[in-house]
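Quick start: what a row looks like.
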Amino acid sequence: MMMKVVTCVVVALSLQSASSFLVGTAGPRTFAIKSRANVGIQTQLCMTGGVNLDRRSILSIFPAAIAFSALSPALAADGKSKIVVFGGSGYVGAHVVQILSQKGYDVVSVSRSSPSAQAEKVSKILGSPLAATKYESLDASTADLNGVLSGASAVVSCVGIAPGGSNQRAGNGGVNIRIADAAKAAGVERFVYISVSSALANGPAKFLLGDYLKGKAEAEAAVIKDFGSNALVIKPAIIAGGPPGELRPPGPPGIKPVSVDAVAKAVVAGALGEKSGSIDGNDDISAF
């Protein structure tokens, strides 16, 4: 059976790159496969003009199209991309994972804790479990991260050692540098990092929290180096509340805590490409 193709044949493929383009041939005819951002699973096979194609010619295009689709970041079944959240079972991370899951994204939470321990902790923080979330047990400071990062469109790092903990510089700096470098190598498009406000870092606290702040600064520099305009650094001073049963020291006098929901909302905006650069300080985070 012969058919007249005037413009394009639309096929279902999982593509999402804004600039992806492939040119090939079907018999004597040239075709192009183009993917546009937010098209979801619709991909156009556009011919060089009005040409006659039989069924065999059309089917011959599909192997190239399928191979091309593998070049784009992996998509969940509903067309939403994979997002990896390091520290996803922590106080901020759990709220980030919750929002992303509610939006239909394929979310992977990474922590040194076992998957069951992560799920239990998230349930306590949020008041209910997140059934759709995948939990991975990895030590980001030493483990091979290629597998968990494969196919991800964005990475969020909520990883850090609180002031007063051991190895504060490496626990805030070195581990996040490693995550950022691995994400870049894996072809991840966007990166979001939670740091600390400039007002706090440049105030009297710098004399008390030297290694903590040095680690945060080193991590920020690595994220910006690796991801440039595709990075978002969120810099709260003090976040209100904490995980159930955990006592946290009060913040410096005169600084109003920002809600964890506001921080999580800003993080999600960065992961989805709606915000880049930095959001510095509790007032700017709350107003976002």
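That is the whole record. DSSP finds nine helices and 13 strands in the chain. Residues 1-53, 61-77 have pLDDT under 50 and may be disordered.
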